[in-house]
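Suppose you are handed a protein chain with no further information: no name, no annotation, nothing but its sequence. What can you learn? This example shows the usual starting point.
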Amino acid sequence: MTLPEAPAVAVYGSGPGYKSGFATALVLLALLFGVSAPPARAADDDPFTVTVPVDATADSIVSARDKARHDGEHRALAAIAERVAAGSGASPKLAKLDDNAVTNLVASFEVANERMSAVRYLADYTFHFRPAETQRVLKSAGISPSAAAADAAAGPGGKPIVMLPVYQAGGRAVLWDDPNPWRQAWAELPPSSGASPLAVPLGDVGDIAAIDAEKARTADAGALAAIAKKNGGEDVIVTLATPRAAGKPETAGKPDIAGIVTTTPGSPAGLDVTVRRYRQGRLAETHVAPVEGKPGEAPDALLQRAAATIAAGIQTGWKQETGDKYDQRGSLTATAPITGLDDWIKLRDSLASLGTIRKVDLMALSRQEAVVEIDYVGSVDQLQASLAALGLALARGDTGGDRSWRLARSETPASR
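A reasonable first move is to predict its three-dimensional structure. Written in structure tokens, the prediction is:
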């Protein structure tokens, strides 16, 4: 069987440059002459960078390459654990993580010395792990990092800020559940370099037991303290993101007279984000940060841009926040049709979940309708767009001179 050698180096991600050395030559000797491959090697100057040889066989070369990469990631993480444990006297007993969980710990990787056939793949992989996230995995296994590893993971600010990205669409809020594209956008950000690193929890069993989307959204003090303690932090930031509905579906994705597509089908018009920072379970500060979608921007790109913008705002103390646009505040009274008490409670919870709504006061309640006073930030148009994302329509009455506000579910049939 012939295993042709591919180009020397392929780089993936945006991490540090490729590190090569004597281990690469040993790997090639192993492939050519059947010598046992060297073990995973951690870089002396970076405790979170590891080079491992990979060798996998599968039904196709694509499957073999994926299998090899996942195997390499697991072995590289184990090598980091062994290295740290050797300096602390601890026994490396990492909890079994699935492929996605380990992949999320990797900031970037490079590939060298690829050789492949139709069903077999061999190469050298250099993985650069995210320091803060990897340190938390080690600590959960009872492994105390060495001083160098701890310094690299903690950064200049010491304890990390625990970031909880809650995504709400269609009236349902998610944190650990898949899919959560908002959490994925935060996980894909490069490691922060500000005064305090931002750390997105892995979502392992301990994280899930500590807090869920509802407790994060409603600021359960005990749950916030538990998730902070588990991830080695003190402050917790909850970013609640709600996509804003796009324009009319019949025009979405169609080119204008210049042939330019102005709206990508299925793309939100923007993202309403409320950022709440908690210290010792108590609210310390709140920021409302609506992010407008760009023409033709894909949903994932919007979420990634929003996460990067908000991360920068957190690290700079929101010095670049325009303020005037977001400090606008208003209040209106609306009548909402309901089918009973349970229906009112669902409506109230939906309203309270929106980042653009500061307060909801019940003015009157009957079996058929509820009258509410809504205190909101931004413009009425922004409020209407945010409500539309939850399937709620806010409009003024147009019959009989009645210009009062009406709030109804978009799918609710007209009164008979």
